[in-house]
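Subject: Protein record for review, amino acid sequence with backbone structure tokens
How to read it: Take the token row as a discrete description of the fold.
Enclosed: The protein record, placed directly beneath this head.
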Amino acid sequence: MIKNDLYLRALKGETVERSPVWMMRQAGRYLPEFIALRDKYDFFTRCQTPELAAEITVQPIRRFPLDAAILFSDILVVPQAMGIDFKMKENVGPWLDNPIRTKEAVEQIVVPDVDDTLSYVFDAITLTLEHLNNEIPLIGFAGSPWTILCYCVEGKGSKAFDIAKSFCFQQPEAAHQLLQKITDTTIAYLKRKVEKGVSAVQVFDSWGGMLSPADYQEFSWKYINQIVEALSPLTEVVVFAKGCWYALEDMAKSKASALGVDWTVTPEIARKLTGGNITLQGNFDPARLHSSPETIRKMVHEMIDRFGKDKYIANLGHGILPNIPVENAEAFIRAVVEYKA
């Protein structure tokens, strides 16, 4: 039994003594101990070495009273497993020498045996669970099929992903074939994570907000929902779609346990759109962690007041920024832990 199950109870919509807290990218570049490993090992070496991934996962747990850990990994390990050779380029980010832009290229992509191609992730889960010693739950995650497609077609990060969108609109059959292959791989990958012992999974749709509401339904949500349908009988599923407040009403009708929201929607509107029946997670602006610790505490308490203590998980509205002072991250976490209604 997990000793601190606050996060899991909030996902189930139970009444809790306080809202649980964790931060997206909490095992990351704002921590000096993370930077020490980053300077020693390249990015995908850290992802692909179970001992390093497990160590990075528990670094913030040693420092802060967090209610959940999230496995250190990357959304691009899924396309890598599918034979799409992503690299992490210095000062550029994700990089693909040969972006996927034709039907022929899509047809060559395989749906792999995840036990073979992603075994290092599953080994990292085993090691991390040993470190955590049943103290708090471990979250597994994957990128949404649309977000993965964006990188595969664009070949790198982008402000608008125009090439990826054009591919979908000009070659919809190829786009849907690619999205389905990513979806099938992701379902197998997350199912295996659950079998290895994660307590919940989160799907990150970082680039869903690039799409119009109609295109979001066609190219993103229907594939995310396949993942939700496949995983919800096995575990708690959280969906975080950045910039997609307009889809909250439809998403709330799914079998997801919780929906993440970013800082562009108010707690009141998010509750109204979702009918007040589903757990929400978010939505503190990560840049607001540049405020003073006193201001952070005040804003966090206001955020909890507005969302309500129950059916709520305190988090950021996206990943923590690398230049946030450690004491400010701690102020955010402690403000939740110490909150009294």
